[in-house]
Amino acid sequence: MADKKNDVYARFNFCGKISVSRKAPMVKRDTFNKSEKISINFGIKAGTNMGYVTLSGFKNDEIKTRDVDGNNINIAWDDRLDEDVIKMVASTKKFTVNLGERKEFITEWDMIEYLESALAGYENDIVVTGNFALRPGTGKYSDQVYREFQIQNVFMPGEKDTPHLTMNLDLYYDKDSMDKSDLKTDGRITMHCYTPMWSKADAARKMFKIDTVFNTAVFDMDKPKHKAIHDYKMRYLETKSRNPVHMNWQLAVVNGAEEVEFSEDSLSEQQKEQIELGISKLEDFRRGPIYGQRVNELRLVKPLLTGEFETCKTAAESDFTAREFEDEIYTPTVDESVDDMMKGGSKAKTKAKVDPAVEAPADSDDDIDTMF
N- to C-terminal Cα distance for the chain? Predict the structure, then answer.
């Protein structure tokens, strides 16, 4: 069940300023299936891009978690804030905040309640890290899968931290995954990939479809270093294999209007006329940064050569055959109509197509970090 040689955890790391919606509160309290629910949602703004983070929790009589030795344990709700109890819990199952004072929690509920007060009026940059998840929609949205950045840690940035929205994913692809249809027009190569995620409906890990982008428009191929970096990335993306290969990739979360180069294309016909006549220069019309259309995509930054990938010169073999992999792909289960059931015999469920995951409704030219 999508487990072959897969020990990569999908994580994110956002650094920037907090942005809270004016239309909805940052923290909501509600009931769900007769249980008390609490949730938090806010944005992290890094430059012109915005990454939205979230966390939800419920009140329960008992907390199911793991101890430091990896054993499953149950903790009474009323004991959850006991320091000795918190020390028993594995670090991977804790929620941590350090905005001047370190706090640890073992429930989403307490983490959210603490953040509600700690982030009120907070104006400095923060770092938010956590798990990246793909959440299937329900009801009429059951053919859609949403991206979620689930909060686990919140802390102050270090001296070397700069605003960024990055994450990593174990991406699976084959010889037909690379799409160059936009390469000539805007320099984009789209990779139609899959990544392993837990499917509650299947009670197993399944392969979820997710699109990523290699932005070649940032490269000046006349510069040797630019060409070398371009060719290096392509080496890990291109494959002739019918069977899926995979690689742990660092990705940049792009969600905003990007600054575009100021040129005569930015001018009106009247301004261009003055330049042609020689009575004005291009720089005479520059009025601050110019932004293009809004972009929402996951951009490939670099392969992460750690763990099983540390010696890989290309993407690694996945050990899945094409046929095996097809059986691992997530497809949502939907209720059939009466007519469908009559045509299909006794089956009451069928599999529906699913689109690639989307965002949940929530300058040195030789610097490799800018080359995405």
Answer: 33
